[in-house]
Amino acid sequence: MEVILLQRVEKLGHMGEIVTVKPGYARNHLIPKGFADRATKDRIAHFETMKKQFEADNIKKRDEAQSIADKMEALVVEFIRPAGDTGNLYGSIRRKDIAQAVSDAGFTITKNQVKIPEPVKSIGIHTIEVELHPELSTSVILNIAMTSEEAKLQLKGDTKEADEPQEAAEVEETSTAD
After folding, report:
1. For a Cys-Cys bond, which of 6, 18, 126, 175 suits 142, CB 3.0-4.6 Å?
2. How far apart are the first and last CA of the chain?
């Protein structure tokens, strides 16, 4: 099925291009979400007359997304979660959790804008991508720790201090065992 793209679609094409896609993809995803329209002669002619308006709207949305991206540039989202001794979380942090945390920080996004290949399942600092516009994405830092103190130390990059009390406790245990 041929469709005309009304905006840039990743791995498919740019606004105004006529592309061939599977009918189900067009009917169930591209057309209902407003990403594309059927490529009939009438609709192509209509698109050509409205092309300048679509481009102006796209530029306006991209500029708004750019201003939000500039504000989000240094955003660090903290998650306090229980984990095992190896640093693996007992649960996971999914796109929905990240979207909620970013929204709580004052930026309204949806889980579909969060781009992670799989849920985050370990403690540490993780960088993820948030797509604010089809042509623009920004990164957000996830700081995942078991306590707020550990999260602050991780953010400073000073994990040695977090390990020292455990090492001292291990030394005491070995000396009392003798």
Report:
1. 126
2. 77
